[in-house]
Design goal:
By secondary structure, the chain is an alpha/beta fold. It has helices at 39-59, 62-78, 80-91, 95-119, 162-176, 190-202, 236-249, 274-288, 308-319, 340-356, 393-397, 414-422, 437-447, 508-515, 521-526; strands at 2-4, 6-8, 11-13, 16-24, 29-36, 125-132, 140-148, 153-156, 180-183, 210-212, 229-233, 252-256, 261-265, 298-304, 357-362, 383-387, 404-410, 427-433, 451-457, 476-477, 488-489, 499-507. The chain has two domains: 2-257 and 486-502, Aldehyde Dehydrogenase, Chain A, domain 1 (3-Layer(aba) Sandwich), CATH 3.40.605; 261-473, Aldehyde Dehydrogenase, Chain A, domain 2. Helix content is 38%, strand content 23%. The chain has a seven-stranded mixed β-sheet, sandwiched between helices. Strands 10-9-8-11-12 form a five-stranded parallel β-sheet, sandwiched between helices. The chain has a three-stranded mixed β-sheet with strand order 1-5-4, covered by helices on one side. The chain is globular. It starts with a strand and ends with a helix. Bound molecules: NADP nicotinamide-adenine-dinucleotide phosphate (NAP).
């Protein structure tokens, strides 16, 4: 069986076999095991990052750091097929799902390389305009500057996007000037491990700039220092445990966690209209793509009561075409859940949802999966439930991370829709579908209070445009409350998680010399 080692202190290190094996979730067959590095190997790796990788990155300009990202993107693109196949075998993704993860990661690396090239030969980014601080001494100025943190960034990732999550975190960290340690979710670590292996083989990374820890990190949090950063993606429960250490040791921590995302359908939207069709398309995507295991999947459809049955009918018509099975078979459109634990969690979540809602559809495919073994696999059918809006408190809050969608019958008054949506406790994305501009405006303004991203769609939005589940590097990703309160991506804003804002004040010549952009008095005045 394949053995996956960590890469620490410029070495592929041996370690103890982890308790968690990596499986093909379509067949239940073990495909790899992880060798967990020792604490002393991790400490040596962190030391290399602090004394060599970080300082070397900090000496580089943004354009030079962008060069590294370009190299990483090129390596990914050249090995896309191999990486896709690993994502299919170890994550149960369909080919389209694997491409979304791997290709999305490559695109994000390219995006950040382009942003870095745009900044060019500067080592520092300024924040806002320089300020004149004294009316008597005109040359005395102030300027805010972003500087990299002096520690290490640790990217802890969830099991659903091993490639994209690694790529988006490492891209932002390297461009920010901070060395990076990747800790993939063990169950689906094959893709992330191979990506790091390919980058190391390509020789594009200075020593200590990128390292890899495999396995259980929980007993190692005490090795971090105040100037380190953890960028975490995973469940709110795990995030809470790490946050406890954060408070004790004082390092920075950003969290991207659970979300019960809602989409609202306007009372004006007619059955079969383009806006209706878009809403149904997006609901089907949310239920089926990556077997419903996206943090941004729509979980709740808030529908005017009289339209509930028509939405059920339209959804069921589409979901009954779904082919459940092993994604190795090209006819399969929905694969298994990622792990046995996830399967148990989905079953448990459904038992809870049934207490408040009624199941109106349950697909059959999981009992006879195409190309999958009849037992020992992690297949689960698509499920649609209907519940009664405002009374279904637990249903509005619970995130069932699988192919399950709920239709909530609501009074479509904007205040009611916003209130039901807010019962999610803070979400990553909320969506609104209507051609009635005042209604969209009122609902979207309500959603903005408790949602990280608000998607507004009418009949002018093309079906090929990004849907609410798509996370683009241009826009911030994150949400308040139980979604973690973190903020990733958003173009250059995404570097701020790994940087600090410093205020510089003094003589304008000196201030500009420190930033590395000496300018004439006229240029300063004109800026
Ligand atoms: P998880 O069980 O919370 O694990 C996430 C990561 O944390 C894994 O790498 C895991 O490592 C690690 N971990 C677990 N306990 C730890 C500890 N005590 N200290 C340090 N690290 C620890 O989550 P998951 O099941 O992989 O992912 C599903 C969840 O992630 C869902 O709730 C989903 O909503 C959320 N998610 C959120 C986003 C977002 O952007 N907001 C994106 C994707 C997923 P091991 O694998 O080795 O245990």
């Amino acid at each position: 069986m394949r053995q996956l080692r960590g890469f620490l202190n410029s070495t592929w290190v041996d370690g103890q076999p982890s308790r968690t094996k990596l499986y093909n979730p379509s067949t239940g067959e073990a495909v790899a095991e992880v060798l967990e590095p020792s604490s002393s190997d991790l400490v040596a790796g962190l030391e290399l990052a602090r004394t060599k990788g970080g300082p070397e990155l900090r000496q580089m300009t943004y354009a030079q750091r962008a060069e590294i990202l370009t190299g990483m993107a090129e390596v990914n693109a050249a090995h896309a097929q191999e990486l896709d196949e690993l994502a299919m075998v170890n994550g149960g993704k369909t080919k389209a799902g694997a491409q979304f993860d791997v290709g999305g990661g490559t695109y994000t690396l390219q995006h950040y390389a382009e942003l870095g090239r745009g900044i060019g030969d500067a080592k520092y980014r300024t924040d806002g305009r320089w300020l004149q601080l004294s009316s008597r001494h005109l040359q005395f100025i102030g300027q805010h500057v972003w500087v990299p943190v002096s520690g290490v960034a640790i990217g802890i990732n969830a099991d659903n996007f091993p490639a994209w999550s690694l790529a988006q975190k490492v891209a932002r960290s390297i461009l920010a000037g901070v060395s990076f340690l990747c800790k993939p979710a063990t169950a689906t670590a094959l893709v992330a491990h191979r990506m790091v292996e390919l980058w190391v083989e390509a020789g594009i990374l200075p020593d200590g700039v990128l390292q890899l820890f495999m396995g259980d990190f929980s007993s190692h949090l005490g090795n971090l220092q105040e100037d380190d950063v953890i960028a975490f993606t995973g469940s709110a429960e795990t995030g809470g445990r790490i946050a406890y250490h954060t408070r004790r040791i004082g390092y920075r921590f950003s969290a991207e966690t659970d979300s019960s995302n809602a989409a609202a359908l306007g009372p004006d939207v007619q059955d079969g209209s383009p806006t209706w069709q878009l809403f149904i398309d997006h609901a089907v995507f949310a239920t089926t793509f990556l077997t419903g295991q996206m943090c941004t999947s729509l979980r709740r459809l808030l529908v005017p009561r009289e339209k509930t049955q028509a939405v059920v009918d339209a959804l069921v018509a589409e979901l009954s075409k779904v082919v459940v099975g092993n994604p190795a078979d090209p006819s399969v459109t929905i694969g298994p859940l990622t792990t046995a634990d996830r399967l148990r969690e989905v079953q448990r979540g459904l038992r809870l949802l049934r207490q408040e809602g009624r199941v109106v559809y349950e697909g059959q495919g999981s009992r006879s999966p195409v190309g999958g073994t009849p037992s020992g696999n992690f297949f689960w059918p698509t499920v649609v439930l209907v519940n009664e809006g405002i009374e279904a408190l637990m249903s509005q809050h619970l995130e069932v991370f699988g192919p399950v969608i709920q239709i909530t019958a609501v009074d479509p008054k904007p205040s009611v829709v916003s209130e039901v949506s807010a019962r999610g406790g803070g979400s990553l994305v909320g969506a609104v579908y209507s051609d009635d501009v005042p209604w969209v405006t009122a609902v979207a303004q309500g959603l903005m209070g408790h949602t990280g991203r608000v998607y507004v769609a009418n009949s002018r939005v093309d079906r090929k445009a990004p849907n609410p589940a798509t996370v683009l590097p241009h826009l911030v990703h994150g949400g308040p409350g139980r979604a973690g309160g973190g903020e990733e991506l958003g173009g250059l804003r995404g570097l701020e998680a790994f940087q600090r804002r410093v205020a510089l004040e003094g003589d304008e010549w000196l201030v500009n010399a420190v930033i590395g952009t000496p300018r004439t008095r006229e240029a300063v005045a004109a800026s």
